[in-house]
Each structure stands twice: as C-alpha cells, then as structure tokens.
Amino acid sequence: MADSDDGAGSTAASRSSRTVRMRIAIAIGAVLLVAIGLVVGRVTTPTITYPSTLSAEAGFARDMQVHHQQAIDMAMTVREQTTDPEVSQLAYDIATSQGQQAGQMFAWLNLWGLPQVSPSPQMTWMTLPTLDQSASDHGMNMSSTESTPGAGDAFVPGTLMPGMASAADLANLRTLTGVDAEKLFLTLMIAHHRGGVEMAQALVERSTNADVLALANSIIKAQSSEIGYMTELLAARS
C-alpha cells in the first residue's frame, strides 16, 4: 500500500507542477502580448502635429476671430436700428454663426498650445507661400459680385484686414435708423463678407489641416451665398 500511495502522490505532484508551469507560461504569454500590442500601437498610431504659432492656420484662427467680431458688432447694431424682419433675421444669423465659428477658432489655439495674440502683425500669414508655390491672387472671382477694392494686391502685414469697416463707418451706422441703417449695414457687410471669403481662400491655398480647411470652405460657401442675398436686399432699397 505504501508503494501505491507514493506513486499516487508522485503523480499528483507532477500534475500540480505541470499546472503551475502552464499558468506561469500563460501569464508570461499574456504579458508579452500586451507588450507587443503597445509597441504595435505606438508604431501604427499617427503622431498628432499641431500648427506652429507662425503658421497659416494659427494666423487665420487669430485674424478671422477679429474679422468675425466686427461682423457680429455690425449685426447686433443694425438689429437695434431696424424693424425690417429680413434684415433683422439676416443680422441674427450672421451674429450667431460667426460667434460659433470664432469660439471654434479660439478653442483651436488653446488646443494647439498657442497664444491668442500673434507675435507677428496681422495678415502676415497671408504672405506665406502657397502650397503649390505659385503667386497667389486673393481677388474675388465670383460672377455675382464685384471685386473687393484692392483685392489681389500684395498684403501688407499690420494693415487693415480685407473688408474691415472703418471706425467712421461703424460710428455712422450707430446714428442711423430704418432704411438708411439697413443700406449702410448691407453695403458694409457685403464688403466685409468679400474680405472674409478672401481670407478663407488664402488659408485654403496654404493649409492641409483638415479641420481648418473644413471651416474655411464653409465660410467661403456660406458668405458667398449671403453676399448674393444681401446684394438683392440692397438693390431693393436703392
């Protein structure tokens, strides 16, 4: 009986030993799989590269926020000066859409770890080479509108951005009411939109960033459409 018991004990010990070794092997294999997964993940996951502070994307985000803010100010002013439902609704749409876009660009700069204020004069980014290294013509080329005065000329960093209304025009708008306010608002906003489209087109010519390109193209599409609509409203008041 002793020999039988010893054999059974030896068999049990052998099985236990194999079980322990198997568990150790499984554990080691699991660790190796995790390690391989991490290495593969690092190799296959694309590295996110954010725009630099002097890039076209950063310059566009900063300058277009300023450009949008003036449009919002003009829109809110005319809503107080008119009772016309079409102009009032247009002004509301401009203020809300451009406010949302300005917030999006503000958030981009935060995400990119860049200051909201540019270290270089405004519009400097618009003098950067285009992607195809060709000479860029920012002049408007829309059949439904006239060209922006000076469009296509070389930009001088630090000067007034395309389409921006003067301080005198803004002050004048605040003194008018009714049709007079509507006519000045539409005149100023048409020029302002043309400038905004020009700036957005300049970005498209200089960027491969999908998010920024999507916004720039949406600005081109929406503001080009609004230019046509505002031209019709202005003609009806002439």
Automatic annotation (TrEMBL):
Which species is listed as the source?
Answer: Subtercola boreus
- Name the InterPro entries on file: DUF305_CopM-like (IPR005183), Ferritin-like (IPR012347)
Q: Where is the DUF305 domain?
A: 57-234
Does the keyword Isomerase feature in the UniProt annotation? no
Keywords from the UniProt entry: Membrane, Transmembrane, Transmembrane helix
**Signal peptide (residue range):** none
Q: Where are the transmembrane segments?
A: 24-43
This chain's protein is named DUF305 domain-containing protein
